[in-house]
Amino acid sequence: MGIDQQAITLKGEKPKKFYQPIPPYNGYGIEEDSLGSVFYLQPKPPKKDINKMFTCDQYILRFEARQISENKEENDKKYIVSFFCGDDTIQVYMLSERNSGIWGGKLLERKQHKNPISGTFYNEKSFQIGETVSLGGYNFQLMRADEFTHNYMSVNKNYKFNNEFIFKYRKEPMFSKERVWTMCC
Questions:
Q1: Do the Cβ atoms of 68 and 140 come closer than 8 Å?
Q2: Domain ranges within the chain, ordered by starting residue
Q3: Which among 117, 38, 118, 52 has a CA at the least distance from the CA of 89?
Q4: In the sheet where 60-68 sits, what is the strand order?
Q5: Domain 50-184 CATH assignment equals 2.30.29.170
Q6: Beta strand pairing call for 60-68 and 105-111
Q7: What backbone phi and psi angles, to 5 degrees, belong to 126?
Q8: What is the pLDDT of residue 30?
């Protein structure tokens, strides 16, 4: 055909990378559920640690706590903070005093809570007697633990004991028969 073609060199431009930010947690379910709907068209349920569930599901650590608040009346209320070792979930009950006019019952549903300081989920090492725990916008100071929790903490070497704090608040039993009955039934 008689047409001479000359080679042209093109500049090698890198393709633009687009960053799609992950939307914030919307409050439904747990954060892994929300992330599953972002990454997949058909979301998969989050994977659970089955071995931990089978070995530690029977352990429930129960602490008596008091709320730390600027309102003095709220500081006198007593709560039961239950930590379930099998799936690292936490549930909070409010205890009612007789003739106080305040109904006791479930304050926070059983779910995983994030530590607002570290940004990680609470685990059993986060629950020490005397520590302050922030759950659902409430701050609780763990005052005492039941007998099973004391035994569990003494067997595990991961716990550090604040002996002065423990002996200060261990004078009376944590749960009276009346409190356990009203809390459970």
A1: yes
A2: 19-48, 50-184
A3: 52
A4: 105-111, 89-94, 78-84, 60-68, 138-145, 132-135
A5: yes
A6: unpaired
A7: -75, -15
A8: 78
Angle at 47 between CA 46 and CA 48, to 5 degrees: 115
- pLDDT at residue number 185: 34
Cα first-last separation, the chain: 97
Q: Assess contact for 87 and 113: CB atoms under 8 A.
A: no
pLDDT digits (tens, 9 = 90+) for 132-148: 999 988 999 999 998 89
Residue 101 has which token pair?
A: 């006019």
pTM of the model: 0.72
Output the six-digit token pair for 182. 């009203």
- pLDDT(124) > 50: yes
Pairwise pLDDT comparison (177 vs 57), residue with the higher score: 57
Q: What phi, psi does 81 have (nearest 5°)?
A: -105, 115
Q: Is 31 in contact with 25 (CB distance < 8 Å)?
A: yes
Token pair of 10 as six digits: 């093109």
Q: How many residues does the chain have?
A: 185
Q: Map 33-102 to HEC letters.
A: HHHHHHHCCCCCCCCCCHHHHHHHCCCEEEEEEEEECCCHHHHCCEEEEEEECCCCEEEEEECCCCCCCC
